[in-house]
Design goal:
The protein has 91 residues and is mainly α. Helices cover 74% and strands 0% of the residues. α1 crosses α2 and α1 runs antiparallel to α3. Keywords: Membrane, Transmembrane, Transmembrane helix.
Length: 91
């Protein structure tokens, strides 16, 4: 595997960790507030600023970009092969 693939997978893993962290943070914030009459998770979730969502999205975008940059030559060659198949000659 090339360094771009490893780095791309790392950024995708960081994105998944940040996504889970946002939900865990909201759950911990309202852990003692929830009751049978009301659920405050939505309020706790919305009170977390958009900063973690920004970094989650940016990390995911970087990971996908790095993977595509590494795989682009192979995909381009495959598409070219599909468009122009080799002619088979019959004897």
């Amino acid at each position: 595997m090339s360094n771009k693939v490893i780095l791309g997978c790392f950024f995708i893993a960081v994105s998944a960790f940040l996504y889970a962290s946002k939900h865990m943070t909201a759950a911990m914030m309202v852990m003692n507030l929830n009751s049978t009459e009301a659920n405050y998770f939505d309020g706790g979730y919305s009170s977390i600023s958009t900063g973690i969502s920004f970094w989650t999205g940016l990390s995911l975008l970087m990971g996908i970009t790095l993977l595509l940059l590494d795989w682009f030559p192979a995909i381009k060659g495959f598409l070219k092969q599909i468009k122009q198949p080799k002619n088979k000659t019959s004897h």
